[in-house]
Amino acid sequence: MLSTPNTSQDAWLETLSNVQIATDPATTSDMPRNRDVELWFEDGNLVLVAGDTEFKVYRGPLIAHSDVFKDMLSLPQPGEDRQPGHLARDFCPVIPLYDSPDDLRYVLRVFVPGSSLRAGHFEPSFDEISACIRIGHKYQIEDLVKRNTEYLQKFYPADFDAYVAARRHRPKRFKPIHAIGVVNLARLTGTQSLLPAALMECCTLGPEIVQGFKRADGTAEVLSPEDLGRCFIGRARMAQASARIAHQMFRQTVARGCRHPACCIRVLQRLLNELGDARIELVSNLDWCIPWAGYVDEKDEERELCGKCYKMLEEERPRHLQREVWQILPTMMGVSVEQWGEKGKDDA
């Protein structure tokens, strides 16, 4: 489980205090290690050791983007000037890091020559996004954290219209259970705007909400007890919101410009009366953002509704009712987000 995050300064001090720089990989540990197949460059000038894996990379990009690595490598380097004729450019420090090799590999790929911080078409796995944010936060690689957080904000936005659009284009490699990880990343980075939509998705999970999931290195990703409690309360509030939307959908107010008010009012009343016979998920579904066109088509097969009233029930009225719920979503999930629901406020 992700523990309560340290401040950036605390994390920086903790990282530096654990640094042990050597000039020979064999001197840092007796543990058998393997050179990473992908990220071992013979002309590299920095060896990073994570678990049983060694990475030989270039220090320049890391120093340029990370104050922590910059400060690590500014520490006195043992053996750097002990041999006559030693050149600084030949010195290759070895730094043991207390990170998962898989996590570190995701981050180091960003700094491979010819790459940039998220360039071109990009459809990452959740593991990659999570690693980049967690490792980026630990080593103060601010641009890496920012860009990956912004990627999450596309799918867990503060704006309702953006959320509706994102539901149709979720990343193929993201699963509902990963919402637990999104909540934890939001807590780690202080990105409050991610929390309402991520917690809402957690509320739709089954028993797996308690166990969470495991990262590639076996670390358990679970909700904190406080956020788990928010989800238990949130589930009830989401069901209430669905029930309210269901009953407000067919109130006897016809669309502006309705061609047959008397007929359409009669159909609206019938649609309301038959809700009790409808599929239960329409009335008390935890997902209160579901479309209603299917129910209307099923119950109005003869299409007695005029075109304007049908369009109202298909798009306008459900979106209006759902938007009202969206505006109070932070309260439903037990969190506070400034300027929630405003376009362009996903950095709140």
TrEMBL record:
InterPro entries: BTB/POZ_dom (IPR000210), SKP1/BTB/POZ_sf (IPR011333). SMART domains: BTB (SM00225). Signal peptide: none annotated. Gene3D superfamilies: Potassium Channel Kv1.1, Chain A. Residues 44-156 form the BTB domain. It comes from the Eukaryota. This is BTB domain-containing protein. The lineage of its organism: Eukaryota, Fungi, Dikarya, Basidiomycota, Agaricomycotina.
